Automatic annotation (TrEMBL):
Transmembrane segments: none annotated. It comes from the Bacteria. SUPFAM superfamilies: Thiamin diphosphate-binding fold (THDP-binding), TK C-terminal domain-like. Gene3D superfamilies: 3.40.50.920, 3.40.50.970. The lineage of its organism: Bacteria, Bacillati, Actinomycetota, Actinomycetes, Propionibacteriales. Keywords: Transferase. InterPro entries: PDH/Transketolase, THDP-binding, Transketo_C/PFOR_II, Transketolase-like_Pyr-bd. This is Transketolase.
Length: 311
């Protein structure tokens, strides 16, 4: 889906506003997207920092800024920001009780031509190994400003995962400070929970099915009260079935859903990027097909899950 703007542009515009509004805000870059911050660097040279292609240093600088009372935003490509710099995230942020907002681009495989070095389907799972991170996954560029502002205003570390993939329309009800699940369609069967840019493929895949479709742009914390409310009770005739569709590693949020429904019989189907590495460049859409995340692949998986429950 193509829109008049994109998530990275909305991110840079919002950061420029935050730099003007709050003298505690700083942005730390590692060359990626530096051209979008030229004006900010001119207006706020002491709070717009580019450390060059040194992502671990970028995180260490962010940790140091946080310890001085600043609110740093660190930004780069997802695998460089999260995987390459994980030791600094763990030690220079987490272990020091420092807090920063990390904002990535590239998602799981936005630039398939870049090869495995530019793919990061495991980023949210990696951050899940640390306590306290909020995670936001916008599905439309118009959702980025609200989510970013909530992340910067909060007193915790946060990860905002930007993508070139986008839904046709924003869902304002899902980008509140509380991060609630937005009910897009109500049905009598399973809850199909789509995260970020997976909403449009999920809506296409579930056309004609008697299911409830929910949308989440904030997944840490995940609105588990809504999951409990929207999933069935697990009693005869009211199956508690949840299909979780995430744009990153399949099953990343399964544990949370299973724990939320532990007091009732339930089934969970976790769909997302598979663990098998795709060693052909291809296009993002072709990778979707390989991982079963295109509408036809999602429909096959959801039909199979629901039909197993009916037999």
């Amino acid at each position: 889906m193509t829109t008049s703007t994109d998530m990275r542009t909305e991110f840079a515009r919002t950061v420029a506003e935050l730099l003007d509004e709050d003298p505690r805000t700083a942005v730390v870059l590692a060359d990626i997207s530096a051209d979008l911050f030229t004006e900010s660097a001119h207006r706020h040279p002491d709070r717009t920092l580019n450390v060059g292609i040194r992502e671990p240093l970028m995180l260490s600088v962010a940790g140091g800024l946080s310890l001085t009372g600043m609110r740093p935003i660190a930004h780069s490509y997802a695998p460089f920001l999260v995987e390459r710099s994980f030791e600094q995230i763990k030690l220079d942020l987490g272990h020091q009780d420092a807090r920063a907002v990390l904002v990535s681009v590239g998602a799981s495989y936005d630039w398939t031509q870049g090869g495995r070095t530019h793919q990061s389907p495991g980023d949210v799972a990696v951050l899940d190994s640390l306590p306290g991170f909020a995670v936001h996954v916008p599905g439309h560029p118009d959702e980025v400003p609200s989510l970013l502002r909530h992340a910067v205003a909060a007193d915790r570390s946060a990860y905002v995962r930007l993508s070139n993939r986008t839904n046709a329309a924003p869902r304002p009800a899902a980008v509140t400070e509380a991060g609630r699940i937005d009910v897009v369609r109500r049905g009598g069967g399973a809850l199909v929970l789509a995260v970020g840019p997976m909403l449009d493929p999920v809506l296409a895949a579930t056309a004609g099915l008697d299911v409830t479709v929910g949308y989440a742009a904030t997944v840490r914390p995940l609105d588990l009260a809504a999951v409990r409310d929207l999933a069935g009770t697990g009693t005869p005739g009211d199956a508690a079935d949840v299909v979780l569709v995430e744009p990153y590693l399949a099953g990343t949020s399964s544990r949370l859903v299973d724990e939320a429904l532990a007091d009732r019989p339930h089934r969970t189907l976790a769909l997302g990027v598979g663990r098998t590495e795709v060693r052909r460049y291809g296009t993002p859409e072709e990778h979707d097909v390989v991982h079963g995340l295109d509408p036809a692949g999602l429909r096959r998986s959801i039909d199979g899950f629901l039909n197993r429950g009916a037999s």
